[in-house]
């Protein structure tokens, strides 16, 4: 999620709350009842993103603990900015001219010419949203709410993250019920994704890496002996092709991290707008850092879940191309829980390393590592630089992408564009009704 957090001082709350949510097909397990306040968080059973699955099954209620003690303190407000923040309003665009006119990118035009009518419809709706000051106010109110959340909203975010993972799993069946499962969760706090995995699979063990709370990271709310949290800025691990010794910025990779040891890697970290040691381009560094860690750590045949924004954006399209090449199966999922009105979606790659270009994974990792060094220590003054479109040419050139991958990209993008268009259409219609009633 991309939002800001403030933590209010609430003395009347219990020490922790037990969240219950149902898992598809899981048999009922008996367990002792702790003397804690219980709140039901019913995650829907999903066969696809947002569709209920109608079949009989045995369902158990499993406990996930949230540590409430950590919520009872005052903390400063931090505003988080994803590199994909342009996806967080109906005015998502490639570029606008001085008249606030949406200008499709070259890739978008080619996709529309190849039959991506859903994308064309979405772009029309985005233009309407851009021209509608009432919708601008709607999204501004959402941003303000995220910057000043109350106690209930913080818990709601945690619950929604479990529901999002439930939707993703419902469509892709990416989380096994049984068997050993070692997973990596990048940007894990507050812990909803990991909570879902740990609850569904009782043999799962997780490693989460998330920014320190004092630097603006989310508060970690998950309690589990099967999950280890490492509080760190993952962009300052040693992620180059060779160790860089002449700097005090970097730290070695955690001892718990290793090459090809994770069955599942989740990439959902977001960049802070306010950060004590941050640079303006750190969002791109974070994106590349996550990719390096995931591709280094994932087992051959493992599963990778990655949040992206807008399949028609050149960066996202290239990442989708890479995942499609190195995996045996690639799906996209746009959860209805939180992502309907935004361009964000999740790519789920199964059988990573076993695809037709699985043998190219080491060379991809090496190229990403070289790019990380340039983004971290390049630029005129050696403080790093912005990423350019040409930086990912080592994956595939834009011209080649449009020629050889357009049809597959449209196939992956259609459900994402359609869901967002439906949500924006409702917002536009509601806004028109409100203006007509004034």
From TrEMBL:
Residues 31-40 have a biased composition (Polar residues). It comes from the Eukaryota. Residues 31-54 are annotated as: Disordered. InterPro entries: RNA_MeTrfase_FtsJ_dom, SAM-dependent_MTases_sf. This is Predicted protein. One of its GO terms (biological process) is methylation. It comes from Laccaria bicolor (strain S238N-H82 / ATCC MYA-4686). Residues 167-350 form the Ribosomal RNA methyltransferase FtsJ domain. GO terms for molecular function: methyltransferase activity.
